[in-house]
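Lecture notes, unit on protein representations.

Consider one protein chain, 198 amino acids long.
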Amino acid sequence: MSRIFYNPPNKQIIVLSYAGGTKYFTPLANELGFHTFKPNVFPTQVLQIVREPIQRWMSWFDKQYLTTIFRETKLSNKQFGQWCGKTVSKEFLDNYFKDAYYKIHYDGHTQFQCQWPRIALKEYLHCNWQYLEMENIDPYFLQSTAYKPKHTKSEYLGVWEAMNFELKEYALYKARELYNADIEWYNNLDFIRLSKKG
């Protein structure tokens, strides 16, 4: 699935983070007439679509990391809450975070948004880079209401609902430590501001 598109009329490269709306944006890009990016273009602007770092990590941790482990048990989805209560402990989280700092650099879904797009598009650092919050995909491109990712049961098992409050807070604390650089970068971005309708 492409994460980098080209909008020919605007001479604009559009880049999305992994776990940052790509599944939704790919058919939208086709509908809008954008092309999958090829490096033989001469853009004047790069538009990076950015997702709030902890929301992005939470989505990935549920949808891809824990779901993969749970699927290996061959249990039914109805048993996820019970499995989660037994499996996802403080020790489980500590083991995950102990290795996470080193592993995130090898998986696009967990890499810092402040780094990988600029590496992937290093030939275009001279362009005007602008930033759009993921929830503003629809308002920006379609002039409609905010985009909200769908959480289908076949993809999201609901770890954050199954986890007790203290454990969830502990996981989020550790995630904020891990993604501190991305969070600080995100909080200081000058996002495109859209006029509010209604």
